[in-house]
Amino acid sequence: MRLLFEQRKGQRLYVFTTFGAVYAGVFEQLLEDVVQLRGPDGQSLVFVNLSDVSGIRAYDEDDGSAL
Fold this sequence. Notes:
Elements: H1 2-6, E1 12-17, E2 22-31, E3 34-38, E4 45-49, E5 53-58
Antiparallel strand pairs: 1-2, 1-5, 2-3, 3-4
């Protein structure tokens, strides 16, 4: 999982956790075993324990017009 995050530095992501929460934000860095995201508002920081992460996905703002 650490490698997946390191490959996506600066990208907008959805971060899924083992307890069912989903966080959206820009991945900034890994601090030891903690993932640091910049929240969608561009100001707030979100921290998630790496061991609680069950998956990540690119955050895509598709408006559906490609259909």
